[in-house]
């Protein structure tokens, strides 16, 4: 006689561990994004466990999630660390985004409906009205602006209607988020507001060619800021 199948249930202990892991993950992610850790800084599980008052298992679970998002590295025999500032690393991320995102935006412009247009307009309005810097958050982009920025770019791409492509873009966005924030220190006078306005205008005009071109230039500007190089400026570009 076959033994009855058992079903794994979430016990109070496992649920509690999951909640603690989520808390530590959110703390780590926010601290890295705020610049509390410098590029290359070690993320020591023992210190984090003591600081957060949790077990090493909880901390390691949270660190694995942060690594999966590209906000930390797992180094052989050396534990975990914030990504080092490497031109090659950011060039590879930029190359991946330049390869995929303009294509997805072109699809979005061609497929997006009126509701998508309304969301793009609303997302751009929120971005344009949100201060990029606030005194209490120091020299990095404010959390509110960063979220508005993410939402605007994500909304532009949502019209494609392909969740697999959108998930790929989400992963690349998160992996490049540190680089984008660090780039603010290289080109503080960059007119990102104008770049975003041109993206909105091209998308809502249903001009897929221009939208893809503007996005490619926008991404190239960020990559150039990180590497200290000067991107190619097409004729007529101010």
UniProtKB/TrEMBL annotation:
Transmembrane segments: none annotated. Keywords: DNA-binding, Transcription, Transcription regulation. Residues 8-18 have a biased composition (Polar residues). SUPFAM superfamilies: GntR ligand-binding domain-like, Winged helix' DNA-binding domain. Residues 1-20 are annotated as: Disordered. Coiled coil: none annotated. Pfam families: FCD, GntR. The keyword Transcription applies. PROSITE patterns: HTH_GNTR. Residues 18-85 form the HTH gntR-type domain. GO terms for molecular function: DNA binding. This is DNA-binding GntR family transcriptional regulator. It comes from Streptomyces pseudovenezuelae.
